């Protein structure tokens, strides 16, 4: 439960958590199963109370909901067992439903003028977006066209801009794309909108001009030195920038960025048709993209699968991508998919996990079966905690605690009442996906893949024959060459 609550805390999601406690008469006596629960939830919550009488419960619940919405966080109420059975007068008038979000913050006019000056004078401008720009797709694309600036997003911002938009480069860092990393490391001015991405100082040059727009002033300068801070709503800020600005000429920087994206997509497409046993990961995601509906919801787990999902899932329409982007808790995808299907029963829902994360939570397939939730669960089995393996390799440490035994998770799911498949090659993959598409029941597709590290775009060595052989980078063109052409 705590992992889920911390995910909510980091993502600023209002949650009401009701927690049980021993009867009031047994509290503070070291009774059977008694815990001092308030300290357990103190750090994760914005509101944390134990109800002591049945009569106060409506008021406490009302206040908890109000605080969860107002502070965008977790409210915890601990309820002793005996209070839940007591009858009270039904005369409390709730007011939590009266809560209203503050109006979007307007940017100051002088800040807009200063921001436009920085962006206009930049030789290599970049727009970087986070979750705070949801609902501003049209405006972001228009500003990108006006500035001729490529667009990057945080992992949790994936899907705000369609993946097939030519100017969208993906993300930067380890969970990223080649063009995303190269564009970020070569920019000279960044418009940073609605994000608190923690790794900015690792991939954005320290001498780049930095404009940060956020509704929370405590975030300014927290991740990267800031030249201009704008306390305002991201969408309103973009609109104001376009009002004061004018169309700028296309630059070699922008053309090179588009070419970099095109080259990257071509390389991925060639890899997506590789037929092998075990499979490479790219054909698996091509099968997912081919089968996904226009409004599919992808719940992606933590590990190498996060990298793969960021690079390979196509969210070009109205699909939604989520992951445990801040707390990074393994085992996220399966329970998140259950929640998504319960909330959006008419939308197609996917959970995509590595075998390490899946093994932690797979009994919850019983929940999908019990409530007849037709979720498509894809398990990428490489018999390794691959993300940790790569970290150990980078640190030149011996491998420790990363080997997994592997299992036929399709068969285990079938034993639990779901439809299960075990896939080893491209023909089996296509057959399993075709059957999953027709099945109106929980499905688990266990895909055996090579234990190959995803291309480490954060440490590209395209001029190295050894690197090329290990990561099969034939055809990838360095950005330095593209920008010279």
How would you characterize this protein structure?
- Belongs to the TPP enzyme family.
- Residues 112-241 form the Thiamine pyrophosphate enzyme central domain.
- This is Pyruvate oxidase.
- One of its GO terms (molecular function) is catalytic activity.
- The mean pLDDT is 95.
- The protein has three domains: 2-98, 3-Layer(aba) Sandwich (Rossmann fold); 109-256, Rossmann fold, CATH 3.40.50; 277-449, Thiamin diphosphate (ThDP)-binding fold, Pyr/PP domains (Rossmann fold, 3-Layer(aba) Sandwich), CATH 3.40.50.
- The longest helix has 20 residues, at 252-271.
- It has 485 residues and is α/β, with parallel strands linked by helices.
- Helix 6 runs antiparallel to helix 9.
- The strands form three sheets. A six-stranded parallel beta sheet has the order 10-9-11-12-14-13, with helices on both faces.
- Strand 13 (419-423), helix 17 (426-438) and strand 14 form a beta-alpha-beta unit.
- The protein is built from 19 helices and 14 strands.
Note the gap between the termini. 54 Å
Question: Could you please say which CATH topology of the largest domain applies here?
Answer: Rossmann fold
What shape does the CA trace take?
A: globular
Helix content: 25-40%
Contiguous uncertain segments of 5+ residues: none
Taken together, the total number of domains comes to: 3
User: Biggest sheet: strands, sense, closure?
Assistant: 6 strands, parallel
In the sheet with the most strands, the strands line up as: 10-9-11-12-14-13
For CATH, the homologous superfamily of the largest domain is named as Thiamin diphosphate (ThDP)-binding fold, Pyr/PP domains
Gyration radius (Cα, Å) is 25 Å
Subunit organisation of the chains: single chain
Residues in β-strands, percent: 15-25%
Q: Which CATH first-tier class of the largest domain would you pick?
A: Alpha Beta
Summed over residues and divided by their number, the pLDDT gives a mean of 95
**Counting H and I runs of at least 4 residues, what is the number of helices?**
19
The chain-level structural class is alpha/beta
From the 3D coordinates, which CATH architecture of the largest domain would you assign?
3-Layer(aba) Sandwich
Beta-strand segment tally: 14
């Amino acid at each position: 439960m705590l992992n889920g609550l911390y995910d909510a805390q980091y993502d600023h999601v209002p949650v009401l958590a009701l927690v049980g406690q021993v009867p009031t008469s047994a509290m503070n006596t070291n009774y059977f199963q008694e815990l001092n629960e308030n300290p357990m939830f103190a750090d994760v919550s914005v509101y944390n109370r134990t109800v002591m009488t049945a009569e106060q419960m409506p008021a406490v619940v009302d206040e908890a909901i109000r605080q969860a919405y107002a502070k965008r966080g977790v409210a915890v109420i601990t309820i002793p067992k005996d209070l839940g059975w007591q009858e009270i007068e039904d005369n409390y008038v709730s007011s939590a439903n009266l809560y209203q979000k503050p109006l979007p913050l307007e940017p100051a006019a002088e800040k807009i003028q200063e921001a436009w000056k920085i962006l206009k004078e930049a030789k290599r401008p970049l727009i970087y977006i986070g979750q705070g720009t949801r609902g501003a797709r049209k405006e972001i694309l228009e500003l990108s066209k006006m500035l001729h600036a490529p667009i990057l997003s945080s992992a949790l911002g994936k899907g705000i801009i369609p993946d097939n938009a030519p100017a969208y480069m993906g993300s930067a860092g380890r969970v990223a794309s080649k063009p995303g990393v190269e564009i970020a490391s070569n920019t000279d001015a960044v418009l940073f909108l609605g994000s608190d991405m923690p790794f900015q100082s690792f991939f954005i040059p320290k001498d780049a001009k930095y404009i940060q727009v956020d509704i929370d002033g405590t975030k300014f300068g927290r991740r990267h030195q800031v030249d201009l801070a704008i306390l305002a709503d991201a969408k309103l800020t973009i609109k104001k920038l376009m009002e004061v600005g004018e169309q700028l000429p296309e630059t070699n920087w922008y053309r090179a960025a588009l070419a970099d994206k095109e080259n990257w997509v071509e390389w991925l497409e060639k890899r997506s048709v590789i037929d092998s046993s075990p499979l490479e990961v790219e054909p698996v995601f091509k099968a997912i993209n081919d089968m996904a509906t226009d409004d599919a919801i992808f719940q992606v787990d933590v590990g190498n699968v996060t990298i793969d999902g960021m690079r390979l899932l196509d969210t070009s329409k109205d699909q939604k991508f989520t992951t445990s982007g801040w707390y990074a808790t393994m085992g996220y995808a399966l329970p998140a998919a259950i929640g998504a299907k319960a909330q959006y029963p008419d939308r197609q829902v996917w959970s995509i996990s590595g075998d390490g994360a899946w093994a932690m939570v797979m009994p919850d397939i019983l929940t999908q079966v019990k409530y007849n939730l037709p979720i498509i669960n894809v398990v990428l089995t490489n018999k390794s905690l691959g993300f940790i393996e790569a970290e150990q390799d980078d640190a030149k440490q011996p491998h420790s605690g990363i080997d997994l035994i592997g299992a036929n998770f399709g068969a285990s799911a079938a034993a639990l009442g779901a439809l299960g498949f075990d896939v080893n090659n491209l023909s089996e993959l296509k057959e399993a996906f075709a059957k999953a598409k027709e099945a109106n029941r929980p499905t688990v597709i266990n895909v055996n893949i090579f234990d190959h590290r995803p291309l480490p775009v954060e440490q590209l060595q395209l001029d190295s024959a050894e690197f090329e052989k290990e990561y099969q980078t034939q055809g990838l063109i360095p950005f330095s060459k593209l920008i010279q052409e």
